[in-house]
Automatic annotation (TrEMBL):
Domain Transglycosylase SLT: 34-323
Protein name per the record: Lytic murein transglycosylase B
Molecular-function GO term, any one: peptidoglycan lytic transglycosylase activity
Superkingdom field: Bacteria
Organism: Candidatus Muproteobacteria bacterium RIFCSPLOWO2_01_FULL_60_18
Active site, UniProt feature: E128
GO biological process, one term: peptidoglycan catabolic process
Stretch forming the signal peptide: none
C-alpha cells in the first residue's frame, strides 16, 4: 500500500520553495546522490511512500553549505562565561516570568503529571527559542538532507532523522517543504528532533493534535514528558556548588556527566557539596570555564536528565541558572 503526502504539496509549493533557496545553496540533484536513491527505495519499501512523490519532495530541497559551517562551530563550544551571557540574561528572565504567568495552569499541570520543576520547563523553552519568538528559519528538509548527504561523520544519525521527519509530516499532514527550524533539524518551540517529536511529544491541551510548531501548551507538556522519560526525579536536587580539597578531584572530573559516585564516595576524593546532602545520592563533578578560572558544581541525576535534552554541560547549566532567575522574578512580582 502506498501513501501520499498532503494535497498541499503541489507543484506550486515546490516551485516557490525552489525560488526561495538561500544564497550559496545548491539545488539538489537527485541523480548525483546514490545514497538518496537508496534512501528513497528504503522509504518506499519499509514505510509505503511513493517513490515519485519523494522525488518531488526532494526537488524543493537544497544542499546548504552554511548548515555544514554551523555544525562545525556550535555555540556550545564557547567557554561557559561567554555562553552564559547569551542565555542567562535579565531580559530572558523577565520574558520567562511572563510566559510562566501566561501559562501558569498548564505549567502547574505539567509539574503535577511529570514532576519537573516549572522553572526548568520554562527555561528550556527560553534557551531553545526565546519562548517561541525564534524557532529557527532553516528549512528542516534542507538541513536534514544536507547533513545526510554532506556530513559524513554523522550521516547515519541524520539519515534516521530525515526518515523520521518524512514520517512525521505525513502523520501530521504538514508540507515537508515548508517546515522551518534549526540548522540541525530541530523544530518547534521546544526544538525537538523529528524522532523525539514522534516519540515524546504529547497532546497536552487535548485537541487531538501534538503540535509543537506553534502551540505553547503542547510544548510545555512535551518538555516535561521528555525530561520525565529521561530520568527526572521528582523532588530531587539538580545541582549544587562544590567545595574541593586536595588534588584527587581531578580523577572524578574525568568520569563525565553521568552521576557515578555517591556523595560519600566523592568525599574520599576531596569533593564536597556546599550544603548537606544525602550521602548515598550520586553526583558528577561538573567543571565550567569562569572568567577567573574553573567553576565547579555537583550535578545530580536531574542535571544529567537536562543534558539528555542537549548533550552539553554548558547548555544544562544555562537552563538551571536561567530557571533560577525566572523563579526569582516570579517571587518578586508574582502577578505582573
Amino acid at each position: 500500500m502506498h501513501f501520499s503526502f498532503p494535497g498541499r504539496l503541489s507543484i506550486g509549493c515546490i516551485v516557490l520553495a525552489m525560488l526561495a533557496i538561500a544564497p550559496g545553496a545548491q539545488a539538489l540533484e537527485f541523480r548525483k546522490y546514490p545514497a538518496l536513491r537508496s534512501f528513497t527505495a528504503e522509504m518506499t519499501e519499509k514505510h509505503g511512500f511513493s517513490a515519485k512523490q519523494l522525488q518531488r519532495v526532494f526537488r524543493c530541497a537544497a544542499i546548504r553549505p552554511d548548515i555544514i559551517e554551523a555544525m562545525e562551530r556550535p555555540r556550545e563550544l564557547l567557554p561557559w562565561h561567554e555562553y552564559r551571557k547569551i542565555f542567562v540574561t535579565e531580559d530572558s528572565a523577565k520574558r520567562g516570568a511572563r510566559f510562566w504567568q501566561e501559562h501558569a495552569e498548564d505549567i502547574s499541570r505539567a509539574q503535577e503529571r511529570y514532576g519537573v520543576l516549572p522553572e526548568i520547563i520554562v527555561a528550556i523553552i527560553g534557551v531553545e527559542t526565546r519562548y517561541g519568538r525564534n524557532p529557527g528559519n532553516h528549512s528542516i528538509l534542507d538541513a536534514l538532507t544536507t547533513l545526510t548527504l554532506e556530513y559524513p561523520s554523522r550521516a547515519a544519525f541524520f539519515r534516521e532523522e530525515l526518515a523520521e521527519f518524512l514520517l512525521l509530516t505525513r502523520e501530521t499532514d504538514i508540507d515537508p517543504c515548508r517546515v522551518k527550524g534549526s540548522y540541525a533539524g530541530a523544530m518547534g518551540l521546544p526544538q525537538f528532533m523529528p524522532s523525539n517529536y514522534r516519540r515524546l511529544a504529547v497532546d497536552f491541551d487535548g485537541d487531538g493534535k501534538r503540535n509543537l510548531l506553534d502551540n505553547p501548551v503542547d510544548a510545555i507538556g512535551s518538555v516535561a514528558h521528555y525530561l520525565h522519560n529521561n530520568g527526572w526525579e521528582t523532588g530531587a536536587p539538580v545541582i549544587e556548588a562544590a567545595r574541593l580539597e586536595g588534588t584527587l578531584y581531578f580523577w572524578v572530573e574525568k568520569l563525565g556527566l553521568k552521576p557515578a559516585l555517591s556523595v560519600r564516595q566523592l568525599a574520599g576524593y576531596g569533593v564536597f557539596p556546599r550544603r548537606r546532602e544525602n550521602p548515598e545520592r550520586r553526583a558528577a563533578l561538573i567543571s565550567l570555564e569562569g572568567e577567573d578560572g574553573p567553576v565547579y558544581r555537583l550535578g545530580y541525576n536531574n542535571f544529567y536528565a537536562i543534558t539528555r535534552y542537549n548533550l552539553n554541560k554548558r547548555y544544562a547549566m544555562a537552563v538551571v541558572e536561567l530557571g533560577e532567575l525566572i523563579r526569582q522574578r516570579m517571587e518578586e512580582n508574582p502577578s505582573s
